[in-house]
Amino acid sequence: MNTKEFLKALSDGSTVSGYEYRINDTIMYAFKKYTDETIIDDLGNIISLKKSKANVSNMKIMLAAHMDEIGLMVKYIEDNGFIRFTNIGGIDPRTILGQEVIVHGKKDLFGVIGSKPPHLQEASELNKAIKIEDMIIDLGYSKEQLEGIVDIGDVITIRRELKSLQDSRIVGKSLDDKAGIVAMFECAKELEKINHEADIYFVSTVQEEVGVRGAFTSTYRINPDIGIAIDVGFGFTPELPKYETLDMGKGPGITMGGNIHPGLREHLVNIAKDYNIPFQYEIAPGPTGTDGRAMQITREGIPTLCLSIPLRYMHTSVEVVDMTDIKNTGKLLAFFIASISNENLEGLLCY
Amino acid sequence: MKFNGKSLKNLVSIYGPSGNENKIREYIEKEIKDYVDEIIVDAMGNLIARKKGNGKKVMIAAHMDQIGLMITHIDENGFLRFTNIGGISPFVSLSQKVMFENETVGIISMEPMEDISKIKLSNMFIDIGVSSKEEAEKYVNIGDVCIYKSEYEENENTVFTPYLDDRVGCYIAIETIKQIEDPKHDLYFVFTVQEEVGLRGAKTAAYRINPHIGIALDVTGSGDTPKSKPFAVGLDKGTAIKVKDNSILTHPKLKDLMVDIAKENNIPYQMEVLEFGGTDSGAIHLTKEGVITGAISVPTRYVHSTTEMASKNDIINSIKLLTKLLEDNLKI
Amino acid sequence: MLLKRLTEASGVSGNEKEVRDIIISEIKDFVDDLKVDKIGNIIAYKKGKSNSKKLMVTAHMDEVGLMIIDIDDMGLLKFTTVGGIDKRILVSKPVLIGKNKIPGVIGAKPIHLQKREEWKNALNIEQLYIDIGVGGKSEAEKLVSIGDYVAFDSQYIEFGDNLVKAKALDNRVGCSLLIKLIQEIEDIEFYGVFTVMEEIGLVGAGPAAYTVDPDISIVLEGTLCYDIPKLDEHLIPTYLKKGPAISLVDRTTLFNKDFREKIVKIAIKNNIPYQFRKTSMGGNDSGKIHTTKEGSITATISVPCRNIHSPTSVMSKEDYDNTYKLLKSILLEYKEGEL
After folding, report:
1. Is B154 inside a domain boundary?
2. A17 and chain B: CB distance < 8 Å anywhere?
3. What are phi and psi of C268, to 5 degrees?
4. What is the pTM assigned to this prediction?
5. CA nearest B214 in A: which residue?
């Protein structure tokens, strides 16, 4: 499976937080070629271990990218078959009006998020955002016809397929954080050609979007020496301040701030410079909005790094990333991992 | 199975706001000690009762603590100022009667306000009917916590009382403890503390026990009162199987298992998708390497008010579902 | 003078090194074991008469401050806050940037050029910048970098009737008290823990508590004080000069009633003035400590500080001394097995 095919399978799949299991096979199949063992834990995190060839090490490096996406959930079925729904994770209601959806009941059903015709609206209404509680999904069936197929609690995704734009830009849903998973995959591929002393745990985490929940339990299990979260960062568009964003195509953002181990981060930057891998800086004064914030405070504390792949229109169903950023993130991770040895680890982690 | 109104009435009436659960814990311990193999009280005050068995380690949690008000200041005229312990609404608590551990009674009132919609707890006070600070200090101290005082009532199918949240969960746990004779699994019934202020007792109890499976017993809301927002749970329509709240997304396989068991045993049930709030299950499922966790909820109207309301049938069906669930293989 | 050195050091959350180094130099000759853990907490251990309950005394090392996020073409620096800072206190303050403590000032539009209505609104962070006095971006980049931490430039000054003004009294007072305790206490076994990043989410406390696994913890803090006249009495969280403030409840902890009552008894027995912290707002390391592993008991004892989280926080030396007295008395009771 090549990288783009893998990304498409991930992005097109349905992986609403708590219900990520649908792409288990896809992920396991992709990593199988480059790792030694895989387990799925009780919450659903997929943990793929690539052992060090040296076979001496007990150093553990954990990479985490989350496999869940934001989505919707059926909360109520009206008498006429219309579906009332709630959000799972941070959804801007303004981005879902007029969208096509798939309701994942006993069967996948196609539906639309309905809207009131503009003709019937007052001028003042047209300026107000519509709240999720006032929206409905129309599946085209009556309540009786839906019986036994759709139930309260079924998850719903926006119907969207990954597409190429120009050059290496692609667009699709849930590239937050499928792009991260693919970056881990690229890293795993690179590590086939390089020696590394540490054992590497590639973790596709669950339920990041609802509170980095999978990261807590998977980090506890593995108890790594170093934890690296690979997520996405805000890609620059003109209405955003430059200093809060990353440029597309200029490499991953390396996060700086309280959540990040300063010695390790300096080392990561040096590796990027040594190997001519483009990168940018991302500032986060407090706990980051990634699995990294769970990793740092697990057990006795874990030295943590975060890498952010630039992504435009985050948390819409038309997220845009640049494939070169994903590849460069994977490369940077591989070279960083290869540079960590039993000799230099203590020095790097020292305060 | 018959509904035991007297037992529930006792449970809801015993003093036990978050951080002050001694009295309710002593009562529950007495109720269950002849039906369990081990009882421990941990550092936080959780009551952990074990019914030994082989098979999986299952933790069943119901919280003992109640919401209340803590006194932070006594003014010169003997009026008491307070802060909330757990979720307290100023509108709901205005003019309500409260009671302290030593049975001192008071009334919640407020400073005069032009616009009552702007009322906050800091504009309110408790009047215990004394005329000076010295007199007040004979009855209460800063740091004391009071709870709502309101009578338990019932009719043929419904109970009306404060603190169904979560003494009804404790009731379900106690009835289940008494009914199960030969547990299929290793059962840890935990009567937790400090759920209302952040699921704190459940977190530490779950760490200690480290179960394979967790089940929380709590109340949930209802969507069957006039003009209420769409919420597919209502009174007397069955026990509620939690799909999600703000603290947990129930493991899909456990959720499906609970639905299957309800169907096989003809237990009426409803699916609960709660858009706010959390339960002990939220703390349990993230313990150590993760725990497969779900929740059984009793549909309840007017939660966190001085009179909460639930259906006796729903309570009985919750006991049934829990009992049948604990008899299953639980191979998830 | 210890509190002067501590408050004038830069230790914004996530960058506590300077403070950590001072603390280590002060305590290393008085402890039996000392280590810095994987995220920067200091964990010190003193041998002594042992007790069935493990005791930990903690104080957080970090302070609120700022972080540079951008250097513009003119060499002016854009920044963000680290920890809870009321943005209205920022304008017109001197600051020190980075390891080399480059001096700068937080400037804004002169009053003469503002319309009257503008005066009513607080300045947004986006309207503020730090000026280090260079002519352009490349000059600035030689002195400072994106990601540099910025602390207020504020000296330790004793003034008035035994009062102290300094930055970061929250929580260098706690650090100072704990250092003194470690230096003076003999023959009582306990862990002294200096945590990182409390101000950005109680980050250091959980891992430190996981490592030490205490049964009882005393958390030392500098806490809010707002005792202006004409404010309703019940809205005053703590007063200056009424002694150490004992916490009842806050956003992160419901303090154990028995332990709290014991502490009050100890204060009364030793004629130490004390007060209760009357607000439930705010939180501290106790929140993470008491719910770690199988749970434990905590108490938070604080020195009241006016103008907390600003460069001009103010405390009373009497309160500081009384807090130390109370702390020491508690440890002596612990030694006797009375806790």
Report:
1. no
2. yes
3. -65, -45
4. 0.95
5. A42
